[in-house]
Design goal:
The structure is a single chain. This protein is α/β, with parallel strands linked by helices. The protein has 4 domains: about 80 residues, no CATH class; about 200 residues, no CATH class; about 220 residues, no CATH class; about 260 residues, Rossmann fold (3-Layer(aba) Sandwich), CATH 3.40.50.300. The protein is built from 23 helices and 21 strands. Strands 14-21-20-15-19-16-18-17 form an 8-stranded mixed sheet, sandwiched between helices. A hairpin with a 4-residue loop joins β5 and β6.
């Protein structure tokens, strides 16, 4: 395998997340969950029971349209799905949700005044069950204000500001000045409670309308239907139902007013025409009377009776067509009149026989009214308004074309009848000229009379229609708040709280694990370092690290390390074992002294040498003074090695580091170090070297050439995980012979257990103090 492959494998091992180990950490900290889950559940329950419930009041409304027929729209477009049949309903939805309509409802129901009874756990929203009512003389001057009203007795009240400072104390119905307006508090005797404190929120009409607008939802129930769903989120169900009922009632009232406006304009047009025709009819009657007196006219002769009957039928038809022609011209003149606004309501129901023209006028008036409604809540530059104006201009052009077509048709019919009348007149050549002149006057008189009666009839029909319009919106499902509130969703909040109670400890442990850069156990070492693990050592209490105080657990751990080390060096005669670490304070001197003690207990004659000349600590574990030692011998101050050897017992000897020299690296690398080891190999069966840390000093590498094995100490909770890469690099480079790992400082669990499970099933189950307990039992 190449170096690149080794590095890649190394990176994968470092980034590996041990799910099993993480799960074990969760099990060890089970008490975190025992606290977190109930605590989060209690907080969730508090949120559920302290939040004021919110209801969703829903109703279903059917939007109807009594207008029929269209102008300039091919009916086939609807069949092909190219015409938006729901445009009318969508426009009505815009009007239903307009702020102007909501503002009217807020004013009518006085919804800008909110009453709240504050309680310890949850606030109670009041509406009709409020013990009093606030009346304001100039509600349009209201600025957002909050105050408290306290009922002292059946007649006295106290008004407090937000900070509970008294701003008024007096009787009910007494005028209270609030700056730009005045108000009174009117009591509700049936609901009045002595000592009751109610919070009153006075809002401006605009803010109250905006608040309701945000909580109001209107949606089309079906794509091709005219039914809409109206819903409002409200904390007081009665208030929500009253709002929806009143909003639909106001919407219908506005729609009826619009339709009545069309009828009123039609009546106004007819009255103007009646005035003109009445004057013309009077002039004709005066002319007929004068003509008869002057010419002494009599009845037509029997010879002209048959011709006159035919003439009469023709004249009647001409009269009818002339009347219709007159009405059409009047409509065209009204349409072309540019003295008023561009889009005016046209008169309807004038008895025109052309259904296309009638439907066009009706559609035009409907769109004019729709535009007026939109302009109440939108600007003229609004895309919907501009679209309606474009449709109105197209429809207006269609109406002009329809009027022109009707006029052409009527003109053709009139000319045909006039030619027929001319033929009849030729048969009446024998009739006196005076009689013919009178007939002309009489025919004109009859035309005006019929037109007058026709317009009178249409005026009555328009007057009746003003009182017979059907509301646009019909409630098909009454407003209903439902059986349960929509917020707070107690079960969801409780489940989320319990979920948070599980996730929070896991998240804390996960984040702590990600930020934890220290080596914690032997498993983490084995993921990075391929060298064999000789064993683990427990974390010893302060003051109990010397070999004299070695407990049972420490002793058995060192015996295991000794046996694993013997297997590693294959029981070589007089082996030299170096003990080192990456950084100071990892316990290499501790391991070296106790390992030497373990070999001495096995019957071997052992010597341990303190080679860390910069920081000699070996004497602390033997409870002896750091007198002349290795530094003196290497410096040539002592020539006999026996003078620097300290005897601990029959099998255990030690050479301390001695005085700290100025040049420790040169001394360790000198030839006298090799000479000393050659001498000691003849006298001892095992030599242990306590070397300087290999991660920061080069002294240890000078000693590695003498060593048959290297015990590398890693202290849990001290060495950074990045330091494991140093060990891995040393192991891969082959710079240390027979490298073995000892993990030091493993913490004892709460159960009194510590250790590491090996492949062959060996482990410890003892805690600190076990040795002392055994001693007490023996005593």
């Amino acid at each position: 395998m190449t170096n690149q492959d080794n590095n890649l494998l190394q990176t994968e091992e470092e980034e590996y997340f041990d799910l099993k180990a993480f799960f074990y950490k969760i099990l060890v900290r089970w008490w975190w969950f025992a606290i977190s889950i109930p605590l989060c559940a209690v907080i969730a329950l508090y949120i559920c029971f302290s939040s004021t419930p919110e209801y969703k009041v829903e109703a279903k409304v059917m939007i109807s349209d009594s207008k029929k027929g269209e102008v300039g729209v091919n009916p086939m477009l609807k069949e092909l799905g190219l015409f938006q049949g729901t445009m009318m309903v969508e426009n009505e939805i815009v009007e239903l949700k307009s702020k102007n309509l909501i503002l009217d409802v807020v004013k009518e129901l006085e919804l800008n005044v909110d009453y709240t009874r504050e309680k310890m756990l949850r606030d109670e929203k009041l509406y009709k069950d409020s013990p009093f009512r606030i009346l304001v003389d100039l509600p349009e001057n209201i600025k957002d204000t909050t105050f408290y009203v306290v009922t002292k007795n059946t007649d006295k009240i106290e008004v407090l500001d937000v900070d509970k400072n008294v701003i008024f104390e007096g009787d009910f119905s007494q005028t209270i000045s609030m700056g730009g307006y005045r108000m009174t508090v009117e009591r509700n005797d049936s609901l009045l409670q002595i000592g009751d404190e109610i919070r009153v929120d006075l809002l401006s009409y605009g803010k109250a309308a905006t608040d309701f607008h945000k909580r109001l939802e209107i949606n089309l129930l079906e794509k091709n239907a005219s039914a809409v769903g109206v819903s409002l989120k409200e904390m007081n169900p009665d208030k929500g139902m009253d709002f929806l009922y009143t909003m639909i009632k106001r919407y219908n009232a506005n729609g009826i007013e619009d339709k009545q406006l069309v009828s009123a304009k039609t009546v106004e047009f007819i009255n103007e025409r009646l005035r003109v025709i009445n004057q013309e009819l009077g002039d004709i009657e005066n002319s007929a009377e004068t003509f008869k007196k002057t010419n002494q006219l009599t009845n037509l002769t029997s010879d002209a009776a048959l011709a006159m009957e035919q003439k009469k039928a023709t004249d009647a038809e001409l009269l009818k067509l002339g009347t219709e022609m007159d009405v059409v011209k009047s409509v065209r003149a009204y349409l072309e009149d540019r003295r008023g606004e561009e889009f005016r309501i046209l008169p309807e129901q004038l008895g025109l026989t052309d259904e296309t023209l009638n439907s066009g006028i009706s559609k035009y008036n409907e769109m004019v009214l729709r535009r007026g409604k939109l302009l109440q809540s939108a600007r003229e530059s609004n895309p919907i308004v501009l679209g309606l104006e474009s449709q109105l201009r197209e429809l207006k052009s269609s109406i002009r074309s329809a009027i022109a077509n009707v006029e052409n048709g009527l003109d053709i019919k009139i000319k045909s009848l006039e030619r027929e009348s001319q033929l009849v007149e030729e048969k009446l050549t024998s009739v006196p000229t005076q009689e013919k002149q009178y007939r002309s006057i009489a025919r004109e008189q009859e035309l005006k009379e019929n037109l007058f009666l026709f317009l009178m009839q249409k005026r009555e029909e328009a007057e009746i229609a003003k009182l017979m319009y059907v509301p646009m919106a019909k409630i098909i499902e009454n407003p209903d708040p439902g059986e349960h509130p929509v917020a707070p969703r107690k079960m969801l909040i409780l489940l989320f709280g319990m979920f948070l109670g599980v996730v929070l400890p896991v998240g804390i442990m996960f984040v702590a694990d990600m930020w934890d850069t220290k080596v914690r156990n032997a498993e983490e070492v084995e993921k990075v370092v391929a060298a064999p693990l000789l064993g683990t050592l427990p974390q010893l209490p302060e003051g109990r690290t010397s070999i004299e105080q070695e407990g049972f657990v420490m002793s058995e751990s060192m015996h295991l390390i000794r046996e694993n080390l013997n297997y590693l060096i294959k029981r070589k005669e007089s082996p030299v074992i170096m003990v080192s670490s990456t950084i100071p304070s990892e316990g290499k001197s501790l391991v070296a002294s106790h390992l030497a003690n373990a070999y001495s207990k096995a019957g071997k004659k052992v010597i341990v040498i303190g080679c860390d000349l910069r920081n000699p600590k070996l004497n602390e574990y033997f409870k002896k003074e750091n007198r002349k030692g290795l530094s003196a011998y290497l410096a040539g101050m002592v020539d006999d090695p026996e003078l620097i050897i300290e005897k601990v017992d029959e099998n255990l000897h030690v050479i301390f580091g001695g005085t700290v020299p100025p040049n420790p690296t040169q001394l360790i690398a000198s030839s006298r170090m090799g000479e000393l080891l050659d001498y000691l190999k003849k006298e001892f069966s095992c030599i242990i070297l306590d070397t300087p840390p290999l991660g920061i000093l080069a002294d240890g590498f000078s000693l590695s050439e003498y060593a048959d094995a290297c015990v590398y100490v890693i202290r849990a909770n001290v060495l950074d995980k990045k330091g494991l890469r140093v060990i891995s690099d040393l192991e891969k480079g082959g710079r240390l012979a027979n490298l073995g790992i000892v993990v030091n400082g493993i913490k004892v669990s709460r159960s009194g257990r510590y250790g590491y499970s090996y492949g062959y099933g060996y482990g410890y189950g003892y805690g600190y103090g076990q040795n002392e307990k055994d001693k007490k039992k023996k005593k």
